[in-house]
Amino acid sequence: MSQNPNLFLSVGKQIKDEYGRGLGKVASFALTPNGKFDAVFIEQGNGRFSKFPAENLKFNGTDIMLTSKTKSEAAALCDQIPLLWRKDEALKSLVEKKKISPELYEELHNNFDGALNQLKNDAQHLTDSIDKEITRCVNEIKDLNYALVHLEIEHEIGRTNDESYQIAFTIIQDDLKRANTEKSDLELTRNKLSNILLGETPKTDEQDESKIQEAESSESVASTSNAPELPEPPVVVYVKEIGKTGI
């Protein structure tokens, strides 16, 4: 995160997550006694306040974006776990070459092994959390597709005019794109963690970005092509009630 010298110029501005969702407005900032930026206070749409740490924020001038805490934690684990493996392997090589004593090897190996097991546990807990987030995205995508179908039905039978239909259609499509992008992002993060736990080398950021774009493209098509077909518009017959005097 780059330090912004004019932080308070962002007060009152909308803050978004990395998928473009509005989270609220910047209300204030928390700074340490020596003036270092520490966190931002956000007023949400419901009037509640939230505080986000500096490491999860990205500045572009006076605009602020909240980055994914899950992705940053996963990236840290994907760096730390292989590093400990390499250190432990190097330690094993040193004792085999008789450059360190077996007693020192055993002590350091136990330290590395304990730290590695803790990181693996953290990675597993994070993976479980990601699974829940993916399920949330799947349910959100399903609900949005239902909303789209109901919108099409109401427009088809003439209960929604063209202007309102276009506004609603654009909103739902934008939300579908964001939900699909987040789901693809989470799946790639989960796969990266799983590969690390299995001892595989993580893929590069360029490969991840390529897969995200491919997933977005395929899921965007799927969200349209897999949507339930609309039923034929119902035939409505209006029957005028005639009293006895009208017979």
Concise account of the structure shown:
This protein has helices spanning 69-96, 102-156, 162-197, 205-225, and strands at residues 14-17, 22-31, 37-43, 49-53, 57-60, 63-66. The chain has 247 residues and is α+β, with helices and mostly antiparallel strands.
Care to describe what's here?
The chain is of the alpha+beta class. It folds into two domains: 61 residues, PRC-barrel domain (SH3 type barrels, Roll); 155 residues, no CATH class. Helices cover 57% and strands 14% of the residues. The chain is built from four helices and six strands, in the order ββββββαααα. A six-stranded mixed sheet has the order 4-3-2-1-6-5, with no helix packed on it.
What secondary-structure arrangement, pairings included, does this model have?
Blueprint: E1 14-17, E2 22-31, E3 37-43, E4 49-53, E5 57-60, E6 63-66, H1 69-96, H2 102-156, H3 162-197, H4 205-225
Helix pairs in contact: 1-2, 1-3, 2-3, 3-4
Q: Into which percentage range does the β-strand content fall? A: 5-15%
| Shape type | elongated
Quaternary class:
single chain
- Residue-averaged pLDDT: 82
Main sheet specs = 6 strands, mixed
Q: What number of structural domains do the residues give?
A: 2
Number of strands: 6
Low-confidence stretches: 218-247
Helix content: 55-70%
How many helices in DSSP terms?
Answer: 4
Computed Rg: 27 Å
Structural class: alpha+beta
Strand order of the largest sheet: 4-3-2-1-6-5
Ends apart, CA distance between termini = 82 Å
Order of helices and strands: EEEEEEHHHH
